[in-house]
């Protein structure tokens, strides 16, 4: 088994803690290890042969530095010269794996997700792998616990067979609330988590079928016997990305392929898509406050506040439902239900030409 | 005329910006000069012979440093070894003045008040001085514009004479709201601002009458002809403060004396007693936000917030009625109507032994 971690996200919604060069996956938002490091370590019980981390040029150095402590299995950092969404990144990783080990299975994971129950996560990957070895494209579908309108959904055909994995009927884009409520009630809809398990040669086959242009470009990569020496590949990767389109694996392959299964999963998952989502997966005090990097905060009548204190003495007095984030050069104060609007702040700073703050 | 500035306050309500060694009066909360410097400069049109600043040992060095740029008139910094409220500080200053210039008038001013209309302030002091020269104790009473329960009030007898100053009928402690509403409606009640004008020898006379112990202690001070060399006086001042009680000039003299007048004043006054009071006297944006030391803040749907940003990029998203103060070692987030509770934070830190934060 090979692990492929997609680590190129920019994470503007975690500004000012996240920046272009230090997006969410490279931050230790929970204290200690970064989300990328946690994602990698979470896969070690799967005993992968190699771990391939796909990132971008801005983040490559820090990504490699964060993973330098890992030696077994080997970790390869593949650098995309520009981001082209998930399909090219996955195609490139699949090509690298298939060239060495065509029947090798690959587990594709976003670098910046939270998973509470890591043992259950591994069990679900093993379940998915069995089907992957039989030629299926398998996705992990998160059993929804609320009518979330911020995720895509996967409809499973639970009629035909009693046990998972189930055949996938369709992929659904982020739904309006009414539809999300129906999905939740129906019981056979799952959140599309972006976690996949398949054989390298199977996904490449499906790319040939549904993404012939990308497939042809990938086929032109030329390997020597030192193919894992990625430095040698860099010029070829640069050339590859100069000629391919941006596309998601969902739209490019998953929604079109006929051999897709879903493994329902409930292992305490969050995409940690905003400061308010972060609060949900962090340790909270008895008033639901989360104080990160804020030792011994003074909390007087404060509720549901999330504070990143940059090590300072934090004091909260009579405030509710806030997100307060302080860094060396910026201070964000945001109402919790407006966390999605943090990216607007980044847009304003971008328009003002404040590159040093992005 | 002599100016006496009382500058020994600790200002815990402006934590974390104010600290024991840098209380409110030593801060440049409005940008630029400190409140002490502004208070001193406000008196220069009065052409005082000398300016006497009474402070405490913790703040003496910074106080002297902030006033070192002033040469004409001379500025004396008198250091109290311990704070004993206003009566001893005023008695000491009056003794220093009377020893040189018994009929000299002194204007007593707190160091940490805001006054918008400085010309009107000077006019009112001149008005008060006329009565002071006739042997009265004159206080500046602020015409109230709201039923404030946080100040003491002065009742004026406006019946006897048509023009100010008016005789003072009584001093009233901080009233409950109902009483404050009555005072506001009555029209002859004024806020006790702690600003006084009198002759040095008159206040000393009244101290002999109403505060005999303090008066006797002050009378033991021994002056040489170099009496303004305050360094020589330090041992005597230390001894003086070892033997006197803590008392306010209001309770010790003003409430008991029979020759007190009040000059009503409306010059845009605030005691700047809390972070929320500060916001009222600062420049606000169109949504009533005040951003201090926060260049070019990004403000998205925020109202009535006061932020001290320590020079950082501040961003406010969807938040109302907050006080946010950041310093090198602390971050305060407080609901605006809880600004009085900031001192509770200081109490908690004190109990925890966090001296470095006080």
Please explain how this structure is put together.
2 copies of one chain form a homodimer. With 358 residues, chain A is α/β, with parallel strands linked by helices. Chain A folds into 2 domains: 2-270, Spore Coat Polysaccharide Biosynthesis Protein SpsA, Chain A, CATH 3.90.550; 281-357, no CATH class. The first copy, chain A, contains 11 helices and 17 strands. Chain A has helices at residues 35-42, 57-67, 86-100, 118-133, 177-186, 200-210, 212-219, 230-242, 249-254, 275-280, 342-351; strands at residues 2-6, 50-56, 75-80, 105-110, 114-115, 137-142, 153-156, 166-172, 189-199, 260-265, 269-270, 290-292, 298-300, 306-308, 313-317, 322-326, 330-335. Chain A has a 5-stranded mixed beta barrel with strand order 6-9-7-8-10. A 4-stranded mixed β-sheet of chain A has the order 12-14-16-17. Chain A has a two-stranded antiparallel sheet with strand order 5-11. In chain A, helix 1 links the parallel strand 1 and strand 2. The longest helix of chain A is centred in the middle third of the chain and has 16 residues, at 118-133. Chain A is globular, with a radius of gyration of 21 Å. Chain A starts with a strand and ends in a 7-residue tail after the last helix. Chains A and B meet through strand 15, strand 16, strand 17 and helix 11 of A and strand 15, strand 16, strand 17 and helix 11 of B. Strand 15 (313-317) of chain A pairs parallel with strand 17 (330-335) of chain B, so a sheet runs across the interface.
């Amino acid at each position: 088994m090979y692990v492929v971690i997609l680590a190129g996200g920019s994470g503007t919604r975690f500004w000012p803690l996240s920046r272009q060069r230090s997006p969410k996956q490279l931050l230790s938002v929970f204290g200690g290890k970064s989300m990328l490091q946690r994602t990698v370590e979470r896969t070690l019980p799967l005993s992968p042969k190699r771990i391939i981390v796909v990132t971008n040029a801005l983040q490559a150095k820090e990504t490699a530095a964060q993973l330098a402590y890992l030696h077994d299995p080997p970790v390869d950092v593949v650098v995309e010269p520009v981001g082209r969404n998930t399909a090219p990144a996955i195609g490139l990783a699949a090509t690298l794996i298939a060239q060495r080990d065509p029947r090798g299975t690959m587990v594709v994971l976003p670098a910046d997700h939270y998973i509470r129950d890591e043992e259950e996560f591994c069990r679900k990957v093993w379940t998915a792998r069995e089907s992957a070895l039989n030629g299926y494209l398998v996705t992990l579908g998160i059993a929804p616990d609320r009518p979330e309108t911020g995720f895509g959904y996967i409809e499973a055909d639970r009629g035909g067979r009693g046990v998972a994995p189930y055949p996938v009927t369709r992929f659904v884009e982020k739904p309006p609330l009414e539809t999300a409520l129906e999905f939740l009630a129906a019981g056979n809809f799952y959140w599309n988590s972006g976690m996949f398990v398949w054989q390298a040669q199977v996904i490449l086959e499906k790319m040939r079928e549904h993404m012939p242009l990308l497939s042809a470009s990938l086929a032109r990569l030329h390997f020597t016997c030192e193919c894992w020496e990625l430095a040698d590949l860099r010029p070829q990767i640069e050339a590859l990305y100069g000629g391919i389109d941006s596309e998601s694996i969902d739209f490019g392959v998953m929604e079109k392929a006929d051999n897709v299964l879903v493994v329902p999963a409930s292992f305490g998952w969050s995409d940690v898509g905003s400061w308010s989502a972060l609060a949900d997966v962090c340790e909270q005090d008895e008033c639901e406050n989360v104080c990160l990097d804020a030792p011994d905060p003074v909390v007087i009548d404060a509720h549901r506040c999330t504070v990143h204190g940059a090590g300072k003495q934090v004091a909260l007095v009579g405030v509710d439902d806030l997100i307060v984030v302080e860094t060396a050069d910026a201070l964000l104060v945001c109402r919790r239900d407006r966390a999605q609007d943090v990216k607007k702040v980044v847009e304003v700073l971008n328009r003002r030409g404040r590159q040093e703050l992005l």
